[in-house]
Amino acid sequence: MDLGASPSRRRRGVVLVVGAGGLAITQLGDRKTDQVPAADVQELVDFAIHHKTQAQTLGGNAQEISARGVQELYVYGRGVPAPAPGFVYRLWAVSAKDATHLRDFLPYPDGTVLVRLEVDPSTFDHLLVTMEPAGSEPLVPGEPAWPETG
Question: Nearest Cα to 43, choosing from 68, 17, 69, 72?
Answer without folding.
Answer: 72
